[in-house]
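Risk register update: the risk of archive-format incompatibility is retired. Evidence:
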Amino acid sequence: MLDAVRWQPQSEKGSLPGKLRLIDQTLLPAELRYIELDDVGEIHDAIRRLVVRGAPAIGCAAALGLAAVCQHSRTENQEQFLKELNENADYLATSRPTAYNLFWALDRCRKKISEHVDKATCNNVQELKEALLDEALDILNEDMELCKSIGRHGVELLKNSESPTILTHCNAGALATSDYGTALSPIYTAHEQGLNPSVYADETRPLLQGGRLTAWELMRAGVDVTLICDNMAAEVMREKVIDYIIVGADRIAANGDAANKIGTYSLAVNAYYHNVPFYVAAPYSTIDYSLQNGTEIPIEERGDEELLQCYGKQIAPENCKVFNPAFDVTPADLISAIITERGILRPPFKQSMAG
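Archived output:
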């Protein structure tokens, strides 16, 4: 599998010093390039510019990035170190507003270090730095395992069809997580089990993550994939080619409403009309229990240039007004099931997710 997010030690003596290592996804599929970062501004920029993207991968990158930045702290005072850690975490949290894993991972790191500061056995800042990295690596390793678990649970839904055909949107695969992905994990698992899945991948305007990323990684893994424009999905469903739709999620409210890449809501509406099961695949860390429903999910709006230009070429009038939300919210009543690392959640989600 691809290693979109990893920790890169800079010495053979141990895990510190080290850097956050990322695949620069803005260059795919033309070039596979790894970059190493330990500056908070550069890490913030990498998350904002979608060098790393996908809610689980963003969470892992934020945690490892925080460890990379804080290793350079020169203070020997634990309270001062905690202050610096919180300032860096607050700044990284401003990089993307919708992906809940970003905030979840940073808060988990803060909590762990606060617990260490409160322990009488914690004697120095170096121990805090090592504890911070250990927690970030735990987040990374846990994400690897839960992605595989999502695949094991999700593949059971695909076994009702011989050679299942799945439609997906954006990229929720190995590039969006630490390993197998969320929405693509059942597909990879089905492929490994010899079920011969085939995939239709929406290209996903405006940044083409389906074409640039999903098609690229599925082909790399030997999975049969067909690329379509976003506005072709309903016709593909009408021709009864699609057995299932599986998408990821950047944040799920307590009632099951799910925010995902813009265009997902349209797929869900079309799936409902054409009687195609519509599944969301996401870990429990994506669920924001503080939000009662999807109307409370903050939706990121991105720059005008993403619609006015394509790879530097002007494709619309320069002064044209632009509305560019990066995500939309699919209501829970359009979702057939949510595939998690703990199993399949069925409606009503407010009850099933509370367990």
